[in-house]
Design goal:
This protein is α+β, with helices and mostly antiparallel strands. It is built from 3 helices and 5 strands; from the N terminus they run αααβββββ. The strands form 2 sheets. It has a 3-stranded antiparallel β-sheet with strand order 1-2-3, with helices on one face. The chain has a two-stranded antiparallel ribbon with strand order 4-5. Strand 1 and strand 2 form a beta hairpin. The longest helix is centred in the middle third of the chain and has 20 residues. The radius of gyration is 15 Å and the shape is globular. The protein starts with 8 loop residues before the first helix and ends with a strand.
Length: 102
């Protein structure tokens, strides 16, 4: 899911901001939860309200939203993101490519 060595601009900016604020390197859950929060905020912005049903419908319309774990799209019920492929070399994940699940 989260490959810290990826050169994707969204991931790089997230990682730099996280490290600056918390003085540690982010890990999978920090990146995943941040991506979920971004999706929620985008849903609120698109709905123009915090009404639960309106936000849910707006989130269901999300397509190709860039977050630290990749690109999020919502299907009927879930936020789905691409799969990041990495190779572990000397205990360090080396980003190879992102693969769409669609």
């Amino acid at each position: 899911d989260y490959v810290s060595t990826s050169d994707d601009p969204t991931l790089v900016a997230f990682k730099e901001n996280f490290e600056k604020k918390y003085e540690i390197e982010p890990e999978l859950y920090a990146a995943s939860y941040y991506g979920g929060a971004v999706a929620l905020l985008e849903g609120i912005k698109a709905a123009g309200t915090t009404d639960r049903k309106a936000v849910m419908e707006a989130v269901k319309g999300l397509k190709d939203l860039k977050v630290p774990v990749g690109v999020i799209t919502c299907d009927d019920n879930d936020l789905v993101h691409n799969i990041n492929v990495a190779r572990i070399e000397n205990k360090i994940p080396k980003f190879i490519k992102a693969v769409s699940v669609e």
